[in-house]
Amino acid sequence: YDPARYYGKPDTPFSQLKLNEIGSWFGRRSKTPSAVAGAFSRAWWRWQHKYVQPKKVGMAPFYQLLVGSMVFFYAINYGRIKHHKNYKYH
Question: What are the transmembrane regions (predicted)?
Fold first, then answer.
């Protein structure tokens, strides 16, 4: 069993759709909370298998962790630093 794989009936990838097929493609998607959680879980495991758990890991997971932590700390401190752009002298 591979948690990163969808074992349901295969469908046309979104990148191969024509413009008039997009509505019916979204109509075939399951929009329940468990289906959304399953999609996020598969995406998480795909990322894990590609960057974190291969036999030869490069620097990519460390850079992703670095950028992710920078974005996270910027977001939690944004309320304190948003007024600094209007200051003439700090």
Answer: 62-79
